[in-house]
Design goal:
It is a single chain. The protein is of the alpha/beta class. It has three domains: 133 residues, Ribosomal Protein S5, domain 2 (2-Layer Sandwich); 217 residues, P-loop containing nucleotide triphosphate hydrolases (Rossmann fold, 3-Layer(aba) Sandwich); 68 residues, Orthogonal Bundle (Helicase, Ruva Protein, domain 3), CATH 1.10.8. 42% of the residues lie in helices and 11% in strands. It has 22 helices and 15 strands. Strands 8-11-14-7-15 form a five-stranded parallel sheet. The longest helix is centred in the C-terminal third of the chain and has 17 residues. The chain starts with a helix and ends with a helix.
Length: 466
């Protein structure tokens, strides 16, 4: 694409009334050892050539960052990553950023820099000549609008009270969940309802997510930023590259697009085992590093994993009304698709049983998502209040050092946890994850200390994951 810029720039200059210089033109895209890709170099190359043929304000030219794709008729087309370009310009002390008009609203989220949107190459040249100045895009603030009615509400889920409770805990502490149950028990519906109880994003979170989606080229140009938490649902045939990111030109994968949101993996064991193993490091560290021969890129990946699976290949091992047709060997092979280290990173594993027919036919609604969400927001407020001490915004991100120093347990809770560690032979990771979930349960109960009932409830969810 960079090599093709020659023809695009030449044609765009011609349509803008700028004669293309004769002879050989060398464009130095330094550093030379860094591979260049994309079309955002078109506009700066064209401006550099035009500066040799027209009277341009050199001071303004030297303090301006340019980016944009040129059409053959001189129009400037939008590019990916405008928000990151604006952040880079602000860090380097560059005063102006000139980029496509369609990207201006997005880039204006970064304060401390003048963002100018242009529709044509001629508009930029006239601006640099001081004849017709481009209009500056006013700096915007990310405003988290009042949430509209969710598409899926927990009031439509009949029964499954334990599953709802587990998902409430997961939302309050940003914990990973594995749901297991027969087909038709409501696992997918529960997952679709889950975003309706999540707390709104902080401005800093929304900016992080918007930058990722901008780089991926998925940002809505009209809004210019994401105000809702992402909810990504890749199919089980997804490749490792599509899940974690990469490719010849590295791009964010599904786990980065789900940053600060939800990654829902339905039919969890049907994913290729090597693909699932790619999740282990991001689940632990909250980042994913994509390494290629010429480039290494690190993307944030602090996502909330919600996974769903059947209890066996045929799906009816736990269904009281259907007989399971799977052999013991098939059952064992099915369970082996999920490795122990991956399951060890699941905080809550819950059984989603088949709902009795009388409950399905009941007209009585369950608790609405708005009520559950209020409790989740209150629990998150406790976690934000501890941010100065912990350095994180949710309990799932707590480090082992912070847990040892700052999480306080009652004597009864400590004794129960000690017995559980010995009895279930928990790993160090499992031990700390129980403490994280217990702290979230305590936050939902507005409790200062982690008490014995909080540990006991956390252990119930952990036993199924082991």
């Amino acid at each position: 694409m960079v090599q093709e810029a020659r023809e695009r720039v030449k044609s765009a200059l011609k349509h803008s009334g700028i004669s293309f210089p004769r002879g050989t033109i060398v464009v130095n895209l330094a550093p030379a050892d860094l591979r260049k890709f994309g079309t955002l170099y078109d506009l700066p190359i064209a401006i550099a050539i035009a500066a040799q043929a027209t009277a341009i304000d050199q001071e303004r030219f030297a303090t301006t960052l340019f980016a944009g794709e040129l059409a053959l008729d001189g129009m400037i087309r939008p590019v990916n990553g405008a928000l990151s370009l604006a952040a880079l310009a602000a860090e380097r002390g560059i005063r102006e950023l000139i980029l496509p008009k369609a990207n201006a609203a997005e880039a204006a989220l970064i304060p401390g820099i003048s963002v100018l949107g242009a529709e044509t190459l001629l508009d930029v040249i006239l601006h640099l000549q001081g004849e017709e100045f481009l209009k500056e895009e006013p700096t915007r603030k990310i405003e988290m609008n009042t949430r509209s009615a969710p598409l899926f509400d927990f009031c439509s889920v009949r029964g499954q009270e334990q599953a709802k409770r587990a998902l409430e805990i997961a939302a309050a502490g940003n914990h990973n969940v594995l749901m297991q149950g027969p087909p038709g028990s409501g696992k997918t519906l529960l997952a679709k309802c889950y975003p309706s109880i999540l707390p709104p994003m902080e401005s800093s979170e929304a900016l992080e997510v918007t930058r990722i989606w901008s780089v991926a080229g998925l940002l809505n140009a009209k809004e210019g930023f994401l105000s809702e938490r992402p909810f990504r649902t890749p199919h089980h045939t997804a490749s490792g590259v599509s899940l974690v990111g990469g490719g010849a030109i590295p791009k964010p994968g599904e786990i980065s697009l789900a940053h600060r949101g939800v990654l829902f993996l339905d039919e969890f064991p049907e994913f290729s085992r090597p693909v699932l193993e790619n999740l282990r490091q991001p689940l632990e560290d909250g980042i994913v590093t994509v390494t290629r021969v010429q480039q290494t890129v690190t993307y944030p990946a602090r996502f909330n994993l919600i996974a769903a699976m059947n209890p066996c290949p045929c799906g009816y091992a736990t269904d009281p009304d259907r007989e399971c047709t799977c052999s013991p060997m098939q059952m064992q092979s099915y369970k082996k698709r999920l490795s122990g280290p991956l399951l060890d990173r699941i905080d809550l594993a819950i059984e989603v049983p088949k709902v009795p027919t009388e409950k399905l036919m009941s007209l009585e609604e369950g608790e609405r998502s708005s009520s559950i969400r209020e409790r989740v927001i209150r629990a998150r407020a406790h976690q934000l209040a501890r941010k100065e001490v912990t350095g994180v915004i949710s309990n799932s991100e707590l480090s082992s050092e912070v847990i040892r120093r700052h999480l306080r347990l009652s004597e009864d809770a400590s004794r129960l946890l000690e017995r559980a560690v010995r009895h279930y032979d928990l790993s160090a990771r499992g031990y700390y994850r129980i403490l994280k979930v217990s702290r979230t349960i305590a936050d939902l109960a507005d409790a200062e200390l982690i008490e014995q009932p909080h540990i006991a409830e956390a252990l119930q969810y952990r036993q199924r994951a082991e």
